[in-house]
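Narrative of activities, Objective 1.

The group set out to show that a structural description can be obtained from nothing but a protein's sequence at a throughput compatible with the screening campaign. Below is one input-output pair from the validation batch, recorded exactly as produced.
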Amino acid sequence: MHTWPTILRHGDLTLRPIRWRDEAAWRRVREENSHWLDHWETSDPTGAEPTTFRRWVTHYRRRGRLGKALPLVLEIGADRFAGQISASPIHYQASRSAVIGYWIAERHAGQGYTPLAVALVTDYLVQEMGIHRIEINVRPENHASLRVVEKLGFVEEGYARGFLYIDGDWRDHRRFALLAEDLPAGGLLAGYLNRCTETID
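Output recorded for this entry:
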Protein backbone atom coordinates (compact mmCIF):
# COMPACT_ATOMS: atom_id res chain seq x y z
CA MET A 1 0.00 0.00 0.00
CA HIS A 2 1.32 3.43 -0.94
CA THR A 3 2.32 5.68 1.95
CA TRP A 4 3.63 9.23 1.87
CA PRO A 5 6.27 10.36 2.59
CA THR A 6 7.80 7.36 0.80
CA ILE A 7 11.28 6.38 1.99
CA LEU A 8 13.17 3.45 0.41
CA ARG A 9 16.55 2.13 1.58
CA HIS A 10 19.23 -0.36 0.69
CA GLY A 11 22.68 -0.30 2.29
CA ASP A 12 24.00 3.27 2.27
CA LEU A 13 21.44 4.38 -0.34
CA THR A 14 18.29 6.18 0.80
CA LEU A 15 15.52 7.48 -1.44
CA ARG A 16 13.31 10.11 0.19
CA PRO A 17 10.94 12.87 -0.97
CA ILE A 18 12.35 16.10 -2.29
CA ARG A 19 11.87 19.06 0.08
CA TRP A 20 11.75 22.83 -0.21
CA ARG A 21 14.91 23.07 1.90
CA ASP A 22 16.78 21.00 -0.72
CA GLU A 23 16.99 24.02 -3.01
CA ALA A 24 20.51 25.14 -2.05
CA ALA A 25 21.90 21.59 -2.31
CA TRP A 26 20.02 20.98 -5.57
CA ARG A 27 21.45 24.15 -7.13
CA ARG A 28 24.96 23.36 -5.92
CA VAL A 29 24.91 19.80 -7.28
CA ARG A 30 23.39 20.89 -10.58
CA GLU A 31 26.03 23.60 -11.03
CA GLU A 32 28.89 21.27 -10.11
CA ASN A 33 27.60 18.69 -12.60
CA SER A 34 26.44 20.96 -15.42
CA HIS A 35 29.01 19.47 -17.83
CA TRP A 36 27.73 16.00 -16.91
CA LEU A 37 23.96 16.69 -16.98
CA ASP A 38 23.10 19.59 -19.30
CA HIS A 39 23.42 17.47 -22.45
CA TRP A 40 20.50 15.30 -21.25
CA GLU A 41 18.20 17.96 -19.81
CA THR A 42 14.71 18.55 -21.20
CA SER A 43 13.51 22.08 -21.88
CA ASP A 44 10.48 23.87 -23.29
CA PRO A 45 10.78 24.31 -27.09
CA THR A 46 8.90 27.63 -26.84
CA GLY A 47 11.66 29.04 -24.65
CA ALA A 48 9.37 29.49 -21.65
CA GLU A 49 11.15 29.93 -18.34
CA PRO A 50 11.03 26.91 -16.02
CA THR A 51 8.90 27.15 -12.89
CA THR A 52 10.50 28.10 -9.59
CA PHE A 53 12.04 25.35 -7.47
CA ARG A 54 9.49 25.87 -4.68
CA ARG A 55 6.51 25.57 -7.05
CA TRP A 56 8.05 22.54 -8.71
CA VAL A 57 8.56 20.80 -5.35
CA THR A 58 5.06 21.75 -4.17
CA HIS A 59 3.54 20.33 -7.35
CA TYR A 60 5.37 17.00 -7.17
CA ARG A 61 4.95 16.53 -3.42
CA ARG A 62 1.19 16.95 -3.91
CA ARG A 63 1.30 14.34 -6.66
CA GLY A 64 3.35 12.12 -4.36
CA ARG A 65 0.66 12.27 -1.68
CA LEU A 66 -1.97 11.36 -4.29
CA GLY A 67 0.10 8.45 -5.61
CA LYS A 68 0.44 10.06 -9.04
CA ALA A 69 4.23 10.50 -8.84
CA LEU A 70 7.24 9.47 -6.74
CA PRO A 71 9.65 12.46 -6.66
CA LEU A 72 12.63 11.18 -4.69
CA VAL A 73 16.17 12.31 -3.83
CA LEU A 74 19.16 9.96 -3.68
CA GLU A 75 21.12 10.16 -0.44
CA ILE A 76 24.36 8.15 -0.44
CA GLY A 77 26.03 7.79 2.92
CA ALA A 78 26.79 11.26 4.26
CA ASP A 79 25.98 12.86 0.87
CA ARG A 80 22.49 14.25 1.47
CA PHE A 81 21.80 15.14 -2.16
CA ALA A 82 23.45 12.86 -4.74
CA GLY A 83 20.79 12.84 -7.46
CA GLN A 84 17.12 12.29 -8.15
CA ILE A 85 14.77 9.58 -9.34
CA SER A 86 11.11 10.00 -10.13
CA ALA A 87 8.24 7.88 -11.33
CA SER A 88 5.96 10.26 -13.23
CA PRO A 89 3.34 10.11 -14.49
CA ILE A 90 1.77 7.16 -12.67
CA HIS A 91 -1.46 5.95 -14.27
CA TYR A 92 -4.12 3.68 -12.81
CA GLN A 93 -7.35 2.11 -14.08
CA ALA A 94 -6.77 0.06 -17.24
CA SER A 95 -3.20 1.31 -17.75
CA ARG A 96 -1.51 0.75 -14.36
CA SER A 97 1.74 2.20 -15.72
CA ALA A 98 4.58 4.50 -14.70
CA VAL A 99 7.59 6.13 -16.35
CA ILE A 100 10.89 6.34 -14.44
CA GLY A 101 13.52 9.03 -14.96
CA TYR A 102 16.73 9.66 -13.00
CA TRP A 103 20.05 11.45 -12.74
CA ILE A 104 23.04 11.07 -10.43
CA ALA A 105 26.02 13.29 -9.62
CA GLU A 106 29.14 12.35 -11.58
CA ARG A 107 31.09 11.53 -8.40
CA HIS A 108 28.71 8.61 -7.74
CA ALA A 109 28.34 7.40 -11.33
CA GLY A 110 29.43 3.90 -12.21
CA GLN A 111 29.21 2.65 -8.61
CA GLY A 112 25.93 0.75 -8.94
CA TYR A 113 23.69 3.25 -7.15
CA THR A 114 21.46 4.09 -10.12
CA PRO A 115 20.42 0.45 -10.81
CA LEU A 116 19.75 0.04 -7.07
CA ALA A 117 17.54 3.15 -7.06
CA VAL A 118 15.61 2.05 -10.15
CA ALA A 119 15.14 -1.44 -8.69
CA LEU A 120 13.89 -0.05 -5.37
CA VAL A 121 11.38 2.24 -7.11
CA THR A 122 10.26 -0.49 -9.51
CA ASP A 123 9.59 -2.92 -6.65
CA TYR A 124 7.66 -0.26 -4.75
CA LEU A 125 5.55 0.58 -7.80
CA VAL A 126 4.67 -3.05 -8.41
CA GLN A 127 4.38 -4.38 -4.88
CA GLU A 128 2.87 -1.40 -3.05
CA MET A 129 1.05 0.57 -5.76
CA GLY A 130 -0.15 -2.24 -8.00
CA ILE A 131 1.55 -0.89 -11.13
CA HIS A 132 1.77 -3.36 -13.99
CA ARG A 133 4.11 -1.67 -16.48
CA ILE A 134 7.25 0.40 -15.81
CA GLU A 135 8.84 2.28 -18.69
CA ILE A 136 12.24 3.96 -19.12
CA ASN A 137 13.14 5.98 -22.21
CA VAL A 138 16.83 6.50 -23.03
CA ARG A 139 18.62 8.50 -25.71
CA PRO A 140 20.73 6.21 -27.91
CA GLU A 141 23.84 8.24 -27.03
CA ASN A 142 23.34 7.88 -23.27
CA HIS A 143 25.52 4.82 -22.69
CA ALA A 144 25.42 5.11 -18.88
CA SER A 145 21.62 4.90 -18.81
CA LEU A 146 21.60 2.11 -21.36
CA ARG A 147 23.81 0.11 -19.00
CA VAL A 148 21.27 0.64 -16.21
CA VAL A 149 18.34 -0.83 -18.14
CA GLU A 150 20.55 -3.64 -19.41
CA LYS A 151 21.72 -4.59 -15.90
CA LEU A 152 18.12 -4.67 -14.64
CA GLY A 153 16.72 -6.66 -17.55
CA PHE A 154 14.35 -4.05 -18.98
CA VAL A 155 13.08 -5.20 -22.37
CA GLU A 156 13.64 -2.96 -25.39
CA GLU A 157 10.35 -2.36 -27.18
CA GLY A 158 11.14 0.09 -29.93
CA TYR A 159 12.34 3.51 -31.02
CA ALA A 160 10.48 6.74 -30.27
CA ARG A 161 11.35 9.41 -32.83
CA GLY A 162 11.47 13.03 -31.62
CA PHE A 163 10.33 11.90 -28.17
CA LEU A 164 11.57 14.80 -26.01
CA TYR A 165 12.97 18.29 -26.56
CA ILE A 166 16.52 18.13 -25.18
CA ASP A 167 19.61 20.25 -25.73
CA GLY A 168 17.97 22.41 -28.36
CA ASP A 169 16.28 19.76 -30.54
CA TRP A 170 13.73 16.95 -30.58
CA ARG A 171 15.63 13.81 -29.59
CA ASP A 172 14.95 10.19 -30.43
CA HIS A 173 14.78 7.66 -27.59
CA ARG A 174 15.00 3.92 -27.19
CA ARG A 175 12.05 2.56 -25.20
CA PHE A 176 12.42 -0.07 -22.50
CA ALA A 177 9.84 -1.62 -20.18
CA LEU A 178 9.27 -4.24 -17.51
CA LEU A 179 5.93 -5.81 -16.67
CA ALA A 180 5.01 -6.96 -13.18
CA GLU A 181 5.17 -10.57 -14.35
CA ASP A 182 8.72 -10.01 -15.67
CA LEU A 183 10.08 -9.39 -12.17
CA PRO A 184 12.02 -12.27 -10.60
CA ALA A 185 10.81 -13.96 -7.42
CA GLY A 186 11.41 -11.60 -4.52
CA GLY A 187 11.40 -8.53 -6.75
CA LEU A 188 13.73 -6.69 -9.10
CA LEU A 189 16.18 -5.63 -6.37
CA ALA A 190 16.65 -9.22 -5.16
CA GLY A 191 17.10 -10.47 -8.72
CA TYR A 192 19.64 -7.77 -9.53
CA LEU A 193 21.65 -8.43 -6.36
CA ASN A 194 21.63 -12.17 -7.05
CA ARG A 195 22.99 -11.57 -10.56
CA CYS A 196 25.70 -9.30 -9.16
CA THR A 197 26.70 -12.01 -6.67
CA GLU A 198 26.80 -14.66 -9.41
CA THR A 199 29.00 -12.39 -11.54
CA ILE A 200 31.45 -11.92 -8.65
CA ASP A 201 31.50 -15.66 -7.88
